[in-house]
Amino acid sequence: MSENETENETENVKDRGPRVALVTGANKGIGYEIAAGLGALGHRVGVGARDDARRETAVAKLRAAGVDAFGVPLDVTDDRSVAEAARLVERREGRLDVLVNNAGISGETGPGWVQDPTALDLDAVRAVVDTNVLGVIRVTNALLPLLRRAPAPRVVNVSSAVASLTRQADPAVEVGPVMAVYAPTKSFLNAVTVQYARHLAGTGILINAACPGLVATDFTGFQAPRTPRQGAATPIRLATLPDDGPTGGFFEDAGVVPW
Ligand SMILES: NC(=O)c1ccc[n+]([C@@H]2O[C@H](COP(=O)([O-])OP(=O)(O)OC[C@H]3O[C@@H](n4cnc5c(N)ncnc54)[C@H](OP(=O)(O)O)[C@@H]3O)[C@@H](O)[C@H]2O)c1
User: Fold this and answer.
1) From the centroid of its chain, how far is CA 61?
2) Tens of pLDDT along 7-16?
């Protein structure tokens, strides 16, 4: 490459401006802290959220903290909402560097967060699959054309260590209550993540699953030891991997989570 070409390349990269991220379910909890953390690292952050008031409040709070944040109306279960969100990011930014699929639900639980496999409401199971798995596929596929335009695209799927079949099958490991709806949706999500990684191998897009640990949010009724900011650490690390970083993996703060 000639010196001029190198200069032009550098100029083009500069023209691209800050890295652009979209975080789904970013109005609260771990998603909010992922948005805040990526913003603090210099990303321009799209705050994906389905409720207008909650989204606007989060965007205002992030901006007050110095984050270059913008709102993205986004219900991950709704094809039209997701398509419109992709159009908004395209019109505004022209590309996407980082997608964090964070939005997730547990579904109804009984006392002690138990979801009894012998007494499941199948419609309730479908609703959790629709958010935690189909929502991720829907959003990823809608944003993939914009990710392909970025120089170093990263996708993070926020999963959970309860998705680890290895840990669930080991009676010596403490894995919490039986969660017959939620846990399998995250195992499903992990399996989907691996298929994306295989399909996208060699494209420069790195896609990984992240467990945030047990975090005090609405999701856990705030009965958990970790803060949302601590929960955001691994997703942020995977969103900012170097080009030679892993893809198709499953990580928590301590390292690799066994499948
Ligand atoms: N907390 C934990 O201990 C823990 C552990 C392991 C994994 N996780 C995972 O971490 C992620 C974030 O959880 P969290 O603890 O931060 O929970 P949270 O405080 O309940 O936040 C969940 C977020 O997802 C959004 N969301 C849910 N359904 C959506 C939909 N259809 N479209 C768009 N957004 C939607 C929520 O929006 P609304 O405000 O509109 O409901 C909210 O912003 C989830 O994927 C969860 O499974 C959490």
Assistant:
1) 20
2) 444 334 335 7
